Amino acid sequence: MATEANSDEGGLVFHPMDQFIIKPLFGDGPVGMFTITNSTLWMALSVIAIIALMVLGTSGRSTIPGRIQSIGELAYGFVYKMVEDVAGKDAVGFFPYVMTLFMFIVFANFLGLLPAAFTPTSHIAVTAVLALLVFVTVTVVGFVKHGLGFLGLFWVSSAPLPLRPVLALIEIISYFVRPVSHSIRLMGNMMAGHAVIKVFAAFAPMILLSTGLGLLVTPLSVIAIAAIYGLEILVAFIQAYVFTILTCVYLKDALHPAH
Amino acid sequence: MEGDIVQMGAYIGAGLACMGMGGSAIGVGNVAGNFLSGALRNPSAAAGQTATLFIGIAFAEALGIFSFLVALLLMFAV
Amino acid sequence: MASETQNAADAAASAPGMPQLDFSTFGNQIFWLMVTLVVIYFVLSRIALPRIAAVLAERQGTITNDLSAAEDLKVKAGEAEEAYNKALADARAEAQTIIAEAKAEIQTDLDEAMAKADAEIAAKLAESESKIAEIREGAMESVKDVAKDTAKELVAAMGGKADARSVTAAVNARMKG
């Protein structure tokens, strides 16, 4: 309806959400279970980019690294240190898993910033699966490692006794809200940035409609697109970092549930 | 007519939901500012706490994202 | 009414408002996401991460080796410096002794030469003194003779007969006075 109103008014086209539509790459049919879609394409591209960086880039195995190998080692060291520092030394076994999450998110985010690209991580289906994987892993690891002792995570033994059931309820709720916030944070950040850029992009051709207003609006929106794009580059990395570090925090809870 | 009223309510609600983003902005600023003042008092301890900083920012920001999401849902999904 | 039909047309054109809530695509996305994640996981855990870990370990080893080699070299350099200092000190001490010896030798030579010179000088002095004494003696004698002769001649010239004995006595008395 907003779209209609605007296009009636001046011919500006607002479809900020259309960039998130999942379309089949080949043909025009419905999106089935195994259809290759634009989302599939960009996931595959991120896989290719990860292989290029982490496998082809390090194929030299040189003691003095080249540029690409340096980046690969930087990523390795960054995530390894994060796992070790945040989740503890005994969580190093989960390092490949955490690394997988980090590399996928960071590459999906950055490739999604290319013009005309699609961002798989802007879809709740993708981020919810990522977050639920973490949630299930953490819960299973907690119960396998500590048995029922894992429930001690919810029993705040440092609080006064009458308060403890209330706190336990709050802790349980917050525990189950974790995957929700974990997934919506990533998806919301990615979607919000792209949608805002799209909105400004829709304002940019204003000069074609009215010279007077356009002289003011068009440069402003172009500048705004550039600024938001810069912010999005930052956000693309920070959200991957935050997702990974929260995974590490949850893993620490599973490995050391003592409150 | 009924649909129009629902639509109006949804749009007003979306606008109201956007106020939550201001709250999260205050929260993020609070986290970052307090980190900075703490870091200036004890710069040697600051480097080890950047992870905590980002976690804090992420939590504060998540609530702003939630309100943004509510606004989007009201705009497009209701 | 018009807007409702517009809405319907809109909805048909671009699915529901939020593509993220189009549940018909969820299965597809989740399936391909799982494929992606499994591929990344295997690529990373089987190939990339062990390789990078090996490279890092190797580099660490190289650095450690280099560091220990540097440490060795440093110790060696320290030893060399010590040896050099020692050699320098030895050389200096030797030079000192040589100088002292030379000095002592020179001193003894000097002393000897001095003593010899002194003795020679003393001998020469004594000789010359005796010679002087002789000469003086001789001179005295000749002065006496000359005085006697002169006195005799003077007396003769004056017309007197010079008594040799009285002249001698007079000369002697004069010589003494």
Automatic annotation (TrEMBL), chain A:
InterPro entries, sorted: ATP_synth_F0_asu, ATP_synth_F0_asu_AS, ATP_synth_F0_asu_bact/mt, F0_ATP_A_sf
The residues forming the signal peptide are none
Can you name one GO molecular function term for this protein? proton-transporting ATP synthase activity, rotational mechanism
Topological relation to the membrane, as annotated = Multi-pass membrane protein
Instruction: Please give the family membership noted in the entry.
Output: Belongs to the ATPase A chain family.
Query: What function is annotated for this protein?
Result: Key component of the proton channel; it plays a direct role in the translocation of protons across the membrane.
This chain belongs to which protein, by name?
A: ATP synthase subunit a
Give the species this sequence originates from.
Roseovarius gahaiensis
Automatic annotation (TrEMBL), chain B:
Site annotation (Reversibly protonated during proton transport) points to E61
Q: State the membrane topology.
A: Multi-pass membrane protein
In the UniProt record, does the keyword Transmembrane helix occur?
yes
Pfam families given in the database record: ATP-synt_C
Q: Name one GO cellular component term.
A: plasma membrane
Q: Which residues form the V-ATPase proteolipid subunit C-like domain?
A: 12-74
Its keywords, alphabetically, are: ATP synthesis, Cell membrane, CF(0), Hydrogen ion transport, Hydrolase, Ion transport, Lipid-binding, Membrane, Transmembrane, Transmembrane helix, Transport
Q: Write out the annotated subcellular location.
A: Cell membrane; Membrane
Summary of the function given for this chain in its UniProt record:
F(1)F(0) ATP synthase produces ATP from ADP in the presence of a proton or sodium gradient. F-type ATPases consist of two structural domains, F(1) containing the extramembraneous catalytic core and F(0) containing the membrane proton channel, linked together by a central stalk and a peripheral stalk. During catalysis, ATP synthesis in the catalytic domain of F(1) is coupled via a rotary mechanism of the central stalk subunits to proton translocation.
Return the similarity comment.
Belongs to the ATPase C chain family.
User: What is the protein name given in its UniProt record?
Assistant: ATP synthase subunit c
Q: What organism, scientifically named, is this protein from? A: Thioclava indica
Automatic annotation (TrEMBL), chain C:
Q: Where are the transmembrane segments?
A: 30-49
What topology does it adopt in the membrane?
Single-pass membrane protein
Sorted UniProt keywords: ATP synthesis, Cell membrane, CF(0), Coiled coil, Hydrogen ion transport, Ion transport, Membrane, Transmembrane, Transmembrane helix, Transport
* GO function terms (MF aspect): proton-transporting ATP synthase activity, rotational mechanism; proton-transporting ATPase activity, rotational mechanism
UniProt GO cellular component terms: endomembrane system; plasma membrane; proton-transporting ATP synthase complex
* Keyword flag Coiled coil: yes
Question: What Gene3D superfamilies does the entry give?
Answer: 6.10.250.1580
Query: Where is the protein found, in the record's own terms?
Result: Cell membrane; Endomembrane system
NCBIfam families under this entry?
PRK13454.1
Q: Say what the protein does.
A: F(1)F(0) ATP synthase produces ATP from ADP in the presence of a proton or sodium gradient. F-type ATPases consist of two structural domains, F(1) containing the extramembraneous catalytic core and F(0) containing the membrane proton channel, linked together by a central stalk and a peripheral stalk. During catalysis, ATP synthesis in the catalytic domain of F(1) is coupled via a rotary mechanism of the central stalk subunits to proton translocation.
Q: Share what the entry says about its subunit structure, partners included.
A: F-type ATPases have 2 components, F(1) - the catalytic core - and F(0) - the membrane proton channel. F(1) has five subunits: alpha(3), beta(3), gamma(1), delta(1), epsilon(1). F(0) has three main subunits: a(1), b(2) and c(10-14). The alpha and beta chains form an alternating ring which encloses part of the gamma chain. F(1) is attached to F(0) by a central stalk formed by the gamma and epsilon chains, while a peripheral stalk is formed by the delta and b chains.
Stated family: Belongs to the ATPase B chain family.
The name under which this protein is listed is ATP synthase subunit b
Biological source species:
Roseovarius gahaiensis
Organismal lineage: Bacteria, Pseudomonadati, Pseudomonadota, Alphaproteobacteria, Rhodobacterales
